[in-house]
Amino acid sequence: MGTIRKSLLQLIFSGSFLKRWNDKLRPVELYEVDKQAHKMIIAWVLFSINSKGLSKDEKKLLALEVIEGGIFEYLYRLIITDIKPPIFYRIKSNPVHYKQLTEWVFENLEPKIKPIGDEFWDRFKRYFLKEKESLAKKILRAAHLYASEWEFNLIKSLNYFDEETKEIEENFRSQLTKFGEIRGVSELIKSENTPLKKFIFQCGQLRFQKRWSQTPRIPETSVLGHMFIVACYAYFFTLVMGGCKKMAINNFFAGLFHDLPELLTRDIISPVKKSVKKIGDFIKEYENRELENRIFRILSQGGYEFLASDLRYLLGMDVGSEFTPVIKLNNEAKEVTWDILYNKYNYDDFDPKDGLTLKICDNIAAFIEAYTALKNGITSDHLQQAVWRIRTAYNQYSLGNRLHVGSLLADFD
To answer: How does DSSP assign 15-77, residue by residue?
Structure first.
């Protein structure tokens, strides 16, 4: 049975420090974890479009390869952070040099990743040693290019004097065009603002929205980056707890979108939501109404009702909360308890989603944000209270007999 260690949680979080476009003039700081979140949102869109017509098993396998491929590429990127993309692609074109670099990456990551389980570690290694470019890899490559181009467009006008600017812009266009056989890509590269582009642009804006806005922190984390961190944690937790493949898929994507309503309401901290009677219910009602008007309606009218429907399920809109354990019976969402979810409905056919574990991962991510800021010398009552509150809440808490949350947090001394 696998386990999750402090080192892996911190490694996933470390992308919050890693700056992008560090040799260019930037209006705002751009961070790796934000780009990875945007990339995986785009990958979810492309996966959803390109999996239509596939059998249930084929769709499930494609989703798993997209998710794990995205996580694997992120982990690899964290290790080779100092190598600029043009140099990396030159190394990759030489099989001998690429293998040497990859073996070095394996050595660095093995102590952090292997505790999850030997099968997961073996899949990680195979992903980079396998030369064939699958549909999942093409989806991830197209999503990477589009997310990077989206960032580049933020800084392009400020770098008019840079000789590389025009070359970079042309390279993005030419590279994306090569993925025209991936359904959805042609719509993304159109000049007009299509429903699909509008949704992806809205999601990208969450990188500008900072969490804990009233509390100084190092690093400052965005809502977008936080969603990706929670998605990764939720996926790892599901593997360790023995969740079925569909639960792992749902938990990852539910984590990836769980704060999407904050695009419309901003990051309202928990004490505010709880300070006035029923204000939390009012906020939730407003969030749902705005989601319907500004996201679901646009997708549905643009011919993407299936995306809107899947998002509703991931966000738990039929059961009241994204943090509610839920299954599908007769194609309808049904709330269940956590014990029943794992004891009776832990099968792909029930399309299970573990909202309780998602909430725990959300709190662990917040704990690590506060813990890291304190370790970096930021003294704040808000941060200290957050660390104490989350430690206390989960001190004796375990998820069945598979994962003791209190013991995991106790490693952060």
So the answer is: GGT-BSSTTS--SS--BHHHHHHHHHHHHHHHHHHHTTTS-HHHHHHHHHHHHHHHHHHHHHH
pTM above 0.90, yes or no: yes
Between CA 346 and CA 323 the distance in angstroms is: 17
Query: pLDDT for 202-227, tens place per residue?
Result: 999 999 999 988 888 999 999 999 99
Question: How is the chain split into domains, by residue range?
Answer: 6-207, 223-363
Rounded to whole angstroms, how far apart are CA atoms 66 and 40? Answer: 8
What's phi and psi for 77, nearest 5 deg? Answer: -60, -35
Class of domain 6-207: mainly alpha
Tell me the three state secondary structure of residue 249: helix
Three-class secondary structure of residue 402 per DSSP: coil
Taking the C-alpha atoms of residue 66 and residue 352, their distance in angstroms, rounded to an integer, is 19
CA atoms within 13 A on the CB side of 240: 23
Angstrom distance (rounded) from CA 24 to CA 259: 30
